[in-house]
Amino acid sequence: MTIIGAGLGGLTLARVLHLHGIPATVYERDPSAEARTQGGQLDIHEHTGQAALEAAGLTERFRALIHQGAEATRVLSPQGAVLFEEPDDGSGGRPEVLRGDLRRLLLDSLPPGTVQWGRKLTGVTGLGAGRHEVSFADGSTVTTELLVGADGAWSKVRPLLSDATPGYAGATFVETYLYDVDERHPRTAAAVGAGVMYALSPGKGITAHREAGGVIHTYVELARSEQWLAGIDFTDAAAASARIAAEFEGWAPELLALITDGQRPPVARMIYALPGDHRWRRTPGVTLLGDAAHLMPPSGEGANLAMLDGAELAQALAANPNDVPAALARFETAMFARSSAEAGTAHVIQDLCLGERAPYAFLGFIGGHGLDWVPAWGQAVADYRAEDDEPDFDDVTLRMTVPAGIGGSHVRVELSNRFADAPVRIGHAAIGVGDRFVEATFHGRPSVQIPAGVSRWTDPIALPVAKGDDVLIDLYLPEPTPYATAAGFRFDRSGPGDFTGAPRLPRASVAPDPAGWSLPAGGPFLRTVEVAGTEPQAVIVAFGSSSTAMGWPQYAAGLLPAEARIAVVNRGIPGNRLLRDAPEQAPAWGQSGLRRFDDDVLGTAGATHLVIAYNSNDWGLPGRTTPIDEMPTIDQLIAGYQHLIDRAEAAGIAVILATITPLGPELRTDPHREQLRQQLNHWIRTGGHECVDFDAALRSPADPTRLEADYAAPDGTHPNINGSRRLAQTMIDALARAGTAGAPR
Question: NADP among the record's keywords (predicted)?
Answer without folding.
Answer: yes
